[in-house]
Structure formats: C-alpha cells, structure tokens
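Budget justification aside, the reviewers requested a transparent look at the raw inputs and outputs of the sequence design task funded under Objective 1. We therefore reproduce one unedited record. The lines immediately below are the structure tokens for a 69-residue chain.
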C-alpha cells in the first residue's frame, strides 16, 4: 500500500505505478480477497498497457500474468 500511495502522491507513473498496482493485486490474491484482486489486477493491466518502453511493458505483463488467484 505504501508503494502505491508514494506513487500517487508524487505523480510517479509508467513502470512504477503499474507494479504498485500489481503488488496490490498479488497481495489480495494471496489473501483470498477476490473482489479487491480483480479491482487491482484490472487497474494494473490498464497501467501496464501504458508503459512506454516495450521491453518494460512485456516484462510487466509477464509478471502480472504470473499471479495465481
């Protein structure tokens, strides 16, 4: 949560905000909270599609797809 808050408070975007949302999705998946997992996974995917560098975007999408809900 701290990473996400820091990104939002400091207008940090791209790779960093995408991974902040990914971390939230992963945490909720581990906790078994499907509703919040879906919320943050969707937000992470949207942010991931906006990552400018293709290599970073591909890496992020691979990490996002590794979450087991």
């Amino acid at each position: 949560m701290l990473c996400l808050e820091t990104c939002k408070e400091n207008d940090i975007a791209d790779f960093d905000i995408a991974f902040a949302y990914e971390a939230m999705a992963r945490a909720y998946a581990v906790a078994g909270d499907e509703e919040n997992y879906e919320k943050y996974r969707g937000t992470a995917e949207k942010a991931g599609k906006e990552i400018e560098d293709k290599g970073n975007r591909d890496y992020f999408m691979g990490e996002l797809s590794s979450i087991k809900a």
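Residues 2-65 form one domain. The CA atoms of residues 10 and 36 lie 24 Å apart. Computational costs for records of this kind are itemized in the attached budget.
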